[in-house]
Each structure stands twice: as structure tokens, then as C-alpha cells.
Design goal:
The complex is a heterodimer of chains A (about 600) and B (about 80). Chain A has about 600 residues and is α/β, with parallel strands linked by helices. Chain A contains 22 helices and 18 strands. The longest helix of chain A has 18 residues. By secondary structure, chain B is mainly alpha-helical. Chain B has a single domain, classed as Non-ribosomal Peptide Synthetase Peptidyl Carrier Protein, Chain A (Orthogonal Bundle). In chain B, about 60% of the residues lie in helices and about 0% in strands. Classes of the chains: A alpha/beta (about 600), B mainly alpha (about 80).
Amino acid sequence: MARFVLHPRVSGARMPTATLATILAELARYEATETPASPISVAVLRNHTVETMVPLLKYHLFSNGLKPTVDLGGYDTIQQEVLDPGSVAYDPRRDLIVVTWFLDHLDPQSRRRGWDPAKAIDTVDSTLSHLCERSESTVVASTFLPPLHADNELLSGSLDGHRVDGVRRLNDCLRELAARHSDQLYLVDIERLVQRLGEDRALDYRFQYMNRAPYSKDLLDLFAQQVAIVGRLSKGQVKKVLVLDCDNTLWGGVIGEDQLEGIQLSAHDYPGRCFYEFQQSVLNLYEQGVVIALASKNNENDVWEVLDKHPECPLGREHLATWRVDWNDKASNITSMASELNLGLDSFVFVDDSGIECELVRQTVPEVTVVQVPETPYDLPSLLPKSGLFETLSVSSEDSRRTQLYRAERERKRSQESFRDLDGFLRSLNLRAEIAEATESEVARVAQLCGKTNQFNVTTKRHTEAQIRAFAERDDAAVFVMSAGDNFGDLGLIAVLIAEHADGTGTVDTLLMSCRALGRQLERVFTHHCLSELEARWGVESWQSSYERTKKNALVENLWEELGFQLEEQSDEFKSYSLATSARQSPAIDYVAVSTPGNAVC
Amino acid sequence: MNERVRQLMAQVLQTPMESIDLQTRQEDVEAWDSLGHMNLCLALEEEFGVKFGDHHVIEMTDVGTIVSTVADLTSN
């Protein structure tokens, strides 16, 4: 029987946020547990009382898989701390700096008729510009809240020079700053958060006038959630795969029992519409580049019947990168999809309505983020957007093609099984690679790869767009990229090599490759071409390179040895290598057609 | 009620529950400064589903007053 009937427990307009006491208890539990989470160090600069936010922020950072330290700047000392190189903002280990201004405290004149925002704009502009130039940390600034109770309320939307207009100009200044520092400065839109909660829940005038603490605990909680998401993304921890259950998740009811006509899925009726719109939210993620997969206990043909034949099913087979529709346990199925897609389990999000399946996955593969379908179907369409799991810090055109790329990978794997030896298989792929120096339009993609490539990454240097641009502009440095493709489709831009030289010695700063391109020997071809090109250009006599161990890059532990480099020094964390250019050999690989900008396919 | 208030205070003010009784005053607990007091009020409001007026916030400077204030507000 279908589970989604009008639910009797429907009640309450209050958003279910956890109480301060609950969060403090959870935080104490997190702090007492030893976890392998990567550390994140956050400073909060503020001109209002935000002490309540500190435990909330720590809690949300823990929930995002990080191990936080949070330091609070002095009360109303934002400018001083930004100007003082010894301040809390410039701690060398700082990952993230939060800046939050409350307009009343920044410029008390803002409460008066005829307020001129020029001074406030100047302060905000110079403070944030200075901070972004001085610091390499990611910066999160909150926007300014328009006055909720203005004089001439009725005219506030149309009157030039009204206070509301002044705040708009102040926020425009923030947006311009964020565009100028697009790989460093991110904004939290406080106005939207206030909208979500409503004024009465978002602002606490009692404590604003008693303690200069205008934001309620619930507003600080939402603010902290957003900051924690930026924190997670700035550490390169991106969710890449969405694994969906089918019955009572993609549609209401059980296809095996209710049949095609009986399941709830419709653009018009309740509750079918909730599932319809949920599927649309999944399609939005697909277009954003999230890899979509199914894990369902069903007969495979029943599921295809819905995806192929249901007249109002937005999701189709073509959107899926892979699936496991069988009776195996879902934890093993998710693990096997992770190895098929060459993606880490910590980049997986699993959505299911069954508490038992959710718990099984949570316990067996704790790296996977588990989201349980709410019992109220009308909360389903907003489930994924509200979770913040698939937020991104930048959008590149590469993203939107990712599922297609993984799909092609899947077909490649299938065809691999029909070849007896690897060489024969690779030969049959008609591999092609285009190797060139990165152009301006590729910088965002290079930064994205530096930010999130974990496995095939020898030094794991998380270079930003600005740093990559700086390498590319130097005469004594170069940034190479490789795009590749084969019979099954384009792999896109999948590898980066950054090198520099001085006094006849070349140094490889970065060598990384997206894991979707593994197993084709493309890394050998790529490295060889880059190094040959640079040897001719710079006249280097020897190369130096290194391997820096992380929790995830064991894959390339012996890459330099395989490429013929000599091990020089070795510790648990680090290996350094060298190789005389005269001793470097070209790889004996003849099944990759390489093209470079100078010459056609060679 | 006493227990719940003391437990909450211990949690918010990061202090052992045994060190808090009805006679404990604000100056006896190190973390019970003005910001600790604000967090305590917020946590009490959430725990007991009440809303303090400014005079409550100002007057609740010892555990006995907190317990009687919460009792008053929850009985109405």
C-alpha cells in the first residue's frame, strides 16, 4: 500500500531547529570523540555580540565532517584586526575568516533620516579589500540587513536616498567585492535567512538593547550552518554523487505492488506532485554536475518501467550514471558504486525513506552522508536544497557534463570486460589527448581540480584561481592542462601540471589527474609531453619532484618511481625525487594520439 | 523543575551540576557573566517554552529566582 496519505501528524509552523541545550550536548559528544576529520581554523570578526554563535558554528563544522577551532575577535574591532598583522585574523593556520557587521553599530547615523551611506561603504570596501589582499584564507562576510521599520515605510521602495536605498548600495558594494575576489570572498545573505525565520524569530530586540546581540539564536544557527558549508567546500570536501532509493522516495508507493498506474507521481495531484517536484530538484543537481545513481530493492524491470514509460516522470535512465537495482544490501551496493565510479565514499549522499536502510548505511559506511525522506511529502521538494549538501563555491561548464562523463566511463568498463588484455583494450579506445598551457578561460577549472582532486594528486596543493593565474603569467613557471577523449566520449579537462625553474633545475609543483581518467596511462603521456616541452624552453638539466602524503593519495605513492625518478629523501609524510633530463625516457605508448597547439595530431 | 534548571545551567555555563543549588548567585559562577546570562536565558526559554521580559532577565541573578520565575511563567 502507498505510504503517503494525508498525514495526521501535520502540525506546527515552527521550523524544527535544535535547542541550544541539545546543540551544546551534541557538541560535547563530538569534542569527546576522536575522529579522523581534517582540522579547520575559523576566526570571527564582528561588531556585535555573537558569542552564542561560537558553539553553534563548532557544532555545524563538526556535522560537516571537520574538526574546528573557532576564535572570536574583540567586540567591535573589525577594522583594527584587519589592519594589525598580529591579530587573530592572520594566524598562519587560519582557513576561514568570518566578518559580520551590524549596520546600527557600524554607523549609528544609519537610523536617521537622510543618512548618507558613503562613509559605511568606504569602511566596508577598504576593510574587506585589505583583508582579501593580506590574507590567503577564505573570507565569509554577511550582508547588511535593511531597516525593518523605516520612516516613510510606504515610500521606502521608491524614494531615492531613503535609508532602504542606502543599505541596498552597501550590499551592492559587498557584491562587487565578492565578484572581484571571486575565489576568496563569499557572502551570506542575512536578509534571506531572516525571511526564512520571520522577524520575530530572527531578531531579539531585548538582547540587542541589553547586550548588543541583535541576532537570535535561531538566526545565528542558520548563519553558522552557511558558514560551515563554505568551510567544508573551502577544504575541498565536495559531495559529488546522489544515490536515490526508488519506492517512496522518487515516487509514492511501491511499484512492485501498486503498478505503474498506482504509484503517486504527478505534476498536478497531491501527493504525487511532491515526488514530481523532488525529481525536478534532482534534475537541477544533475545539470549542476552531480552524479545521479539508484540504489533500490526492486525488480530492475519495474524501475525501468517507471523511468521509461511513466508519463509524468521527469527523471530518465539517461540521467543515471549507474544503478544497483537488486536485493543486495545497500551499503555493499553503495561501496561497489564508489569503486566503479572511482569516487570516495565521503563524496556520496544517500537518500532513502526507510529508517532501517538509512541506519544500515550510516553504521556500515559512515563516510556516506545519509538523508532520510521526511514523513511529510510536502517537505520532500525542499529537502535537498535546504540540506546545503550540494552547494558549490563556483560553477564551471565542466560540472554540468559530469554524469555524461561517468556514463561513458561505465560503458568503457563494460567493454573492458570483453577484452582479454589491457593493452588491447586501451588500443581499442582510440584515446586522444590535447596538451597545452592553460588559457584564461580554463583557470576556473584548474582551480576546481586543485581544490577537489584527492586521489591522483602528488602534492595536493590547493591553489586558488589567483595563484594559478600568477603561475601562468610568470616566465619561469608554467601551467599545463590535458583534455582527453576516446570512442565513448569526451573526458574533458582532466589533468594539470604546474612547474617552475631556477638555475637549470625544474621543479614540479603540482601534478594531478581527475580519477575518471585513471587506468589509461594518460598520466605518463601527459607528464612526458610537459617535461619535454619545458626542457626545450627552459634548458633545464634536471628535474625535482615530490610526493606529499595525505589520507587519500596513496594511489600515487609510487608514481614518481614509475615515471623513472630517483628517490632522494623519504619520511612518513614526504618523498623527494630528482631526475637528470638526459636520463629521462619517453614512455612506450603508441595508442594515445596527442595534439598540442603548435602541431596537429602527432 | 529544580533538577532541569540546574542541569541546563551546568550545561550552558560549563560547570559541574553539584556546584549549583538554589542559593547559587551569579557572582559565584565564573562563566555566568552577562553573555553567559544571555545564553542561559535563551536556553531556559527553549527548554520551558517561556518568554522572559526585560525585568525577568535583570532580576534572575540567583538560581532560586530563576526557578520561581520559570514556575510562574509556566503555570500561567
